[in-house]
TrEMBL record:
GO molecular function: aminobutyraldehyde dehydrogenase (NAD+) activity; betaine-aldehyde dehydrogenase (NAD+) activity
Name of the protein in question: aminobutyraldehyde dehydrogenase
Entry keyword set: NAD, Oxidoreductase, Sodium
EC number: 1.2.1.19
PANTHER family: BETAINE ALDEHYDE DEHYDROGENASE, BETAINE ALDEHYDE DEHYDROGENASE-RELATED
Matching Gene3D superfamilies: Aldehyde Dehydrogenase, Chain A, domain 1, Aldehyde Dehydrogenase, Chain A, domain 2
GO biological process, one term: cellular detoxification of aldehyde
Residue stretches making up the Aldehyde dehydrogenase domain: 23-496
Catalytic activity: betaine aldehyde + NAD(+) + H2O = glycine betaine + NADH + 2 H(+); 4-aminobutanal + NAD(+) + H2O = 4-aminobutanoate + NADH + 2 H(+); 3-aminopropanal + NAD(+) + H2O = beta-alanine + NADH + 2 H(+)
Membership in a protein family: Belongs to the aldehyde dehydrogenase family.
PROSITE patterns named among the record's database cross-references: ALDEHYDE_DEHYDR_CYS
Organism (species): Gossypium davidsonii
Listed InterPro entries: Ald_DH/histidinol_DH (IPR016161), Ald_DH_C (IPR016163), Ald_DH_CS_CYS (IPR016160), Ald_DH_N (IPR016162), Aldehyde_DH_dom (IPR015590)
Length: 513
């Protein structure tokens, strides 16, 4: 049964608005390869309108309606949004699945996380009220000082296509909790197939606009602008009235955003790609470690920036481990992602599918061995499906070891010593997520400290909680999302210091009377 695709416009100033140039982008279902609808495509002209709406939202009624409203007021709206999304979970999850190809069970879990994230930041918004005017201890009794936390202003939130509504929520919820006004936009992807890629990111994010309408979120507080990077993204990043940019996407695009932001010295938060290691020592329970290994690389069809896609396994257990890894991979159900029990759906688009297949082909031509997978599943004639793929006989100079694939592809190397394992793990330009698996707690602590990653998972891979910070090092970006750190990134800190003595300051000689 076909899933009805809502027809939406841009969401600007609390209502739907047709793009000024009337452009639209097709939505392609990655399971059927068919066009199932379209979404509006914003241009620079629409960006100007949205930015003005956001600025007006901040200054309306001298800021009392939003920016300087109490955190409790903003929390009420965040909880109302959470409740509406919870109510719409079945529909939103199916839209997410037909849009980007992830298994329905994953989309349903994503919707639960969206609800939890809005509720979490509602609590933090309320907590802001108690933190205002926090006193600062000073060495001079003639002065008193305190701190005010204020919204940073109008923020551009640029999100990827692998977790459309959830990644949007990671940015929208803390930005609104802080009192900012936001413009939400999908990322530009460095691909000749960018049109198809962008088309598969924004159905559920546009539905967030409808939710905001229903809860009467003040006009202009959240604006939603799907569109192509050169036409909308570039003008948003360089806009003189945008105060901060938060971007999740490719390193190539991040460089362009940083360059544009630098012209006006505006802050950026960047969460970029990854090529994460999972280091497996010889003392593990093999089946437990194998399951975490495939979860860390094949979940979300392998399209996770923090994927632990480089398996570094102790040579003494490598043969047995790889044998079990293949058997577990053979047991993964690959199907239409709406089917019950599906654990691996299609890649998001034809462009991304071809990119993944090229990585596999290049690995073979460079001398690596395709231990398992590497092809389209024989039982699926349509859709952008790729078998879970395990590649061995890999050297550290190979493309498959060095570059992010963004698909269900795992490359493997072995090690003999802990020092060698750490060296291999850190042998990458990236530094987003990494994992260590061992029964030796002290060893796990040692390795965790030495891994050059923003997140390290011990005896697991990919757990993510909105209470914990998330972000990377090196080419994986800087700044943190989620937790209190995510909220702080949308706040500006102002010190207020008062001279409280009745005495003359006395620095200068007073004039004669």
């Amino acid at each position: 049964m076909a899933i009805p695709i809502p027809s939406r416009q841009l969401f600007i100033n609390g209502d739907w608005a047709e793009p000024l140039l009337k452009k639209r982008i097709p939505i392609i279902n990655p399971t059927t390869e068919e066009i199932i609808g379209d979404i509006p495509a914003a241009t620079a002209e629409d960006v100007d309108v949205a930015v003005q709406a956001a600025r007006s939202a901040l200054t309306r009624n001298k800021g009392k309606d939003w920016a300087f409203a109490s955190g409790a007021v903003r929390a009420k709206y965040l909880r109302a949004i959470a409740a509406k999304i919870k109510e719409r979970k079945p529909v939103l999850a199916k839209l997410e699945t037909v849009d980007c190809g992830k298994p329905l069970s994953e989309s349903e879990a994503d919707m639960d996380d969206v609800v939890g994230c809005f509720e979490y930041y509602a609590d933090l918004a309320e907590g802001l009220d108690a933190k205002q005017k926090a006193p600062i201890s000073l060495p001079m009794k003639t002065f008193k000082s305190y701190v005010i936390k204020e919204p940073i202003g109008v923020v551009a939130l640029i999100v990827p296509w692998n977790y459309p509504l959830l990644m949007a929520t990671w940015k929208v919820a803390p930005a609104l909790a802080a009192g900012c006004a936001a413009i939400l936009k999908p990322s530009e992807l460095a691909s000749v197939y960018a049109l198809h890629l962008l088309a598969s990111v924004f159905i559920t994010c546009l539905e967030l606009g409808e939710v905001c309408r229903e809860v009467d979120l003040p006009a202009g507080v959240l604006n939603i602008l799907p569109g192509l990077g050169p036409e909308a993204g570039a003008s948003l990043a360089s806009h003189p009235h945008v105060d901060k940019i938060s971007f999740t996407g490719s390193t190539v695009t991040a460089v362009k955003i940083m360059t544009a932001a630098a012209q006006r010295v505006k802050p950026v938060t960047l969460e970029l790609g990854g090529k994460g290691p999972i280091v497996v020592f010889e003392d593990v329970d093999i089946d437990k470690a194998v399951e975490w290994t495939i979860f860390g690389c094949f979940y979300t069809n392998g399209q996770i920036c923090s994927a632990t896609s480089r398996l570094i396994v102790h040579e003494s257990i490598a043969a047995e481990f790889l044998d079990r890894l293949v058997k577990w991979s053979e047991n993964i159900k690959i199907s239409d992602p709406l089917e019950e029990g599906c654990k691996l759906g299609p890649i998001v688009s034809r462009g991304q599918y071809e990119k993944v297949m090229n990585f596999i082909s290049n690995a073979k031509s460079e001398g690596a061995t395709i231990l398992y997978g590497g092809n389209r599943p024989k039982h699926l004639k349509k859709g952008f499906f790729v078998e879970p793929t395990i590649i061995t006989d890999v050297t550290t100079s190979m493309q498959i070891w060095r570059e992010e694939v963004f698909g269900p592809v795992l490359c493997v190397k072995t090690f003999t010593t802990e020092e060698e394992a750490i060296e291999l793990a850190n042998d990458t330009h990236y530094g987003l997520g990494g994992a260590v698996v061992s029964k030796d707690r002290e060893r796990c602590d040692r390795v965790s400290k030495l891994l050059q990653n923003g997140a390290v998972w011990v005896n697991c891979s990919q757990p993510c909680f909105c209470q914990a910070p998330f972000g990377g090092t090196k080419w994986s970006g800087f700044g943190r999302e989620l937790g209190e750190w995510g909220l702080e990134s949308y706040l500006s800190v102002k010190q207020v210091t008062e001279y409280v003595s009745d005495e003359q300051w006395g620095w200068y000689q007073p004039p004669k009377q």
